[in-house]
Design a protein that fits this description.
By secondary structure, the chain is of the alpha/beta class. The chain has five helices and five strands, in the order βαβααβαβαβ. It has one domain: 3-Layer(aba) Sandwich (Rossmann fold).
């Protein structure tokens, strides 16, 4: 069953952070909402180790893409705060647009990570519950 969520992608050309607890459907929502993206999942250990060893790989690989993606998605960005310096550079110099997800903005703030200085406003996901889906009338089933 596919349930429509209230959360929508912004119409603006800005990058965004999408924060929320684990298992609330952030990655699932991204797959259903985001087209033409390049996705980096930091839960994949080989991907994490590559970018942890050389965060500049993000910039280098972006430059080698044949077609510029509408979105660059970095899932679980709080696992690698140094990557945000490269994200910042790409936003400023390559006009890239990012969708950055994570379960803990607190971890980034505590580590004094680059939170992109207003270049990517944050959205907090609500636990997958009745609050996160559109209202339905009495006696009407969920969509």
């Amino acid at each position: 069953m596919n349930i429509t969520r209230i959360l929508k992608l912004p119409d603006s050309q800005r990058s965004i952070f999408l924060w929320g607890p684990r298992k609330t459907g952030k990655s699932f929502w991204i797959k259903s909402q985001v087209n033409h993206s390049w996705t980096i999942n930091l839960l994949e250990s080989d991907t994490f180790l590559e970018f942890a060893a050389r965060p500049a790989l993000l910039r280098e690989r972006y430059a080698k893409l044949e077609a510029r993606p509408e979105w660059v998605v970095i899932d679980e960005v709080q696992k690698l705060p140094l990557l945000l310096d490269e994200v910042h550079w790409l936003i400023e110099n390559a006009d890239a647009r990012f969708l950055l997800t994570g379960s803990s903005a607190r971890k980034l703030r505590r580590g004094q990570a680059n939170l992109l200085g207003g270049r990517a406003p944050g959205n907090e996901t609500v636990l997958f519950s009745r609050i996160g889906v559109p209202p339905v009338g009495p006696g009407k089933p969920l969509p």
